[in-house]
Design a protein that fits this description.
The chain has about 130 residues and is mainly beta. It contains one helix and nine strands. The chain has two domains: about 90 residues, Immunoglobulin-like (Sandwich); about 30 residues, no CATH class. The radius of gyration is 17 Å and the shape is elongated.
Length: about 130
C-alpha cells in the first residue's frame, strides 16, 4: 500500500512551533513515520516517542510542529517518510508569524505590571 498524505490541519501554523499537526491520508500501521517541515524534524508529542509521528489509524497521523528559523515564512514543504518502507510523500504548509500573538499580548496586558509574563506588545519582544 502506498503512503499518501492528502491534507494537514491546521494548514497555517506559527513559526514558533508547538502546535499539534493532524495529517490525513493513507498510512500503514507497520511503518514508523517521520515528519519534517522545511527540513526540521517534527516531534511525535508522546513521551519517549522522539521524532516518530503518532499513528492514530490508517487515515490519520499526529505530530508537533517544530520551531522554524527566523525568516522562514510562507509555504514550505511538509515531508512524511515511512520506515522501513522508505516511502515518502509531501505537501505544502503555510508558516506565519505567531498566529495567537494578539490574544497572547492582550492576556499579558491584563496581568499586574510586576508579573513577569513576557513582552506585552510585539515591538517589545527581544530580537531572535
Amino acid at each position: 500500500m502506498a503512503l499518501a498524505v492528502t491534507a494537514v490541519f491546521p494548514a497555517v501554523v506559527a513559526r514558533d512551533g508547538g502546535e499539534e499537526l493532524t495529517l490525513t491520508g493513507t498510512f500503514v500501521s507497520t511503518d514508523t513515520y517521520t515528519v519534517t517541515v522545511d527540513g526540521r524534524v517534527a516531534f511525535g508529542g508522546v513521551a519517549g516517542g522522539g521524532s516518530s509521528a503518532v499513528f492514530v489509524d490508517a487515515t490519520t497521523l499526529k505530530c508537533v510542529m517544530p520551531k522554524m528559523d527566523p525568516g522562514v515564512l510562507g509555504p514550505v514543504v511538509l515531508l512524511v517518510t515511512g520506515d522501513p518502507s522508505t516511502e515518502t510523500d509531501s505537501l505544502m504548509i503555510d508558516v506565519s508569524e505567531n498566529v495567537f500573538g494578539s490574544a497572547q499580548y492582550e492576556m499579558r496586558r491584563m496581568m499586574e505590571p510586576w508579573k513577569e509574563t513576557g513582552a506585552r506588545r510585539l515591538d517589545l519582544e527581544p530580537p531572535e
